[in-house]
């Protein structure tokens, strides 16, 4: 018991020190390093968010690109009309609401059927946005209101901190235990009084909130976006690979997997 408490204190101190160092870093490093760290933060959020739902429930979702891309388009459309934090919040909220609707219709599916459905959802949204732009706005793609590297860095760091804190709180609560029981046996979880469908839908929606918010931030780093950029299937597959590489059941492993594979991709 004492060893477990000591380990938690050690990890808390390590994370706190890491975030303090990262907050102090921008004035002392090159712009390239800030951009690289932004990419690492982005993939950490996507990976941890994906694992929040898919890890304990064993539902393999490939819809990350859909919610990430929605956040990007919210930023592209509203970036010149609303403050940055409001745009980020809206990006997360719209992703959350869409995920609730998707969860109501799809989370009764299991196994590969759910995986195929979520991947198809990303492609459906991508082609729908492209059709709308070609046929309704007469163009494909949008210019995005840019934000300087340092501002985007600090906002992304804040979203990362909130994501990790929320994931840790859920994982170490009774809701985290309920999710684990759903992954082991949905029938048994239902028999002991867990509202299986409600738990799956709500957790799925919470995980997508962080994806949408991250998309809204990262859009400010790209001067131009279009459906193929915003809804790139890479944003669906990479979080899965990163989580598997580092360890689906460990937040530290997910951070490590996202960091290492982002660095390898960059190099």
Notable characteristics:
267 residues, 79% helix
Protein architecture, described:
This protein has 267 residues and is mostly helical. It is 79% helix and 1% strand. It has helices spanning 2-24, 31-57, 64-78, 84-106, 112-137, 149-171, 174-184, 186-191, 196-219, 227-230, 234-246, 251-266, and strands at 142-143, 224-225. The protein has a two-stranded antiparallel sheet with strand order 1-2. Helix 3 (64-78) packs antiparallel against helix 4. The radius of gyration is 19 Å and the shape is globular. The model has no long low-confidence stretch (mean pLDDT 89).
Order of helices and strands: HHHHHEHHHHEHHH
Number of alpha- plus pi-helical segments: 12
Give the overall form.
globular
pLDDT averaged over residues: 89
**Helicity level:** over 70%
**How many strands in all?**
2
Instruction: Provide the spatial order of strands within the biggest beta sheet.
Output: 1-2
Beta-sheet strand percentage? under 5%
The oligomeric state of the chains shown is single chain
Weakly predicted, low-confidence segments: none
- Rg, Å, rounded: 19 Å
N/C terminus separation? 42 Å
The largest pleated sheet is described as: 2 strands, antiparallel
Instruction: Find the structural class using helix and strand composition.
Output: mainly alpha
